[in-house]
Amino acid sequence: MSPSKRKTLKAFRPRRLWHYCLLILVSLIILFPLFWLLVSSFKTPAEYTAYPIKFLPARLNYYNYLSVLYYPPFTSALLRTFGLSVTTAAITCITSAMAGYAFARIGGKGGKPLFTVVLVLLILPSIVLLIPQFILYARLKMVDTYWPWYLAAFCATNPLYIFLYRQFFLGFPRELEEAAEMDGASPFQVFFQIFLPNSKPAVATILIFAFNAVWGDFIMPVMFLNDPSQLLGTSMAPGYFPPRYYPTFLAGTVIYILPMVIFFLLIQKNIQKGFLFTGLRS
Known about the structure:
The chain is mainly alpha-helical. The chain has two domains: about 5-40; about 70-280, MetI-like (MetI-like fold, Orthogonal Bundle), CATH 1.10.3720. It is built from 14 helices and no strands. Helix 4 runs parallel beside helix 7 and helix 8 packs parallel to helix 14 (about 245-280).
């Protein structure tokens, strides 16, 4: 090894070690509340309210999780929210992909003006649309139903998803599309047989975003449902319980966040590729 390379390594290693130490410190700060939540969910009420505070429980108390899962309102809200999140996420992925494909590959005279509208909606605060949305669904007699979620999914109302799909589809080679068209494939066949199967990173990214948009939503259930506790997020949001129920409530919180953690760990590589390949293509 030459002297110049040795000097470079000596200068690089301390800097790299400092970066790793900083990343580990930030990770510990972020993960500590989650670890505290998980540990506290296994405590008994006496251990949770004990002073001085006991960091770890004497033994793992699984009764908290059993009591939550055998509590009918919790399980029904959990299943209802999971089903609504999965179905709307699947519909949103397809409809947003179709809109992004139209902007990326079909175009036309009105393509650029319409995409400009999408970009404007992208920077528009979503809170300003709440009152018009409520008036619209109220006149359509969809209040106190789940149709506001399904209608929004069918209409691909989120401009971010359309933008990500459009940017991803712009990276596809034109030769694939031309070869399919020469074989007599229609635009729908090109989309469903070539573009959509080869866009797994973008689909995974939109899927987890759309799932979390319903799974963690608080505003729409309060606005459109007479009984917001039908869905899990709003049923757990108040959190006003006697101290003896706190460990049980924390166990329910762990169950509530667990699907998102598992979902992200399963498709995190595709999500990273989705953001990497979208880029800023014009």
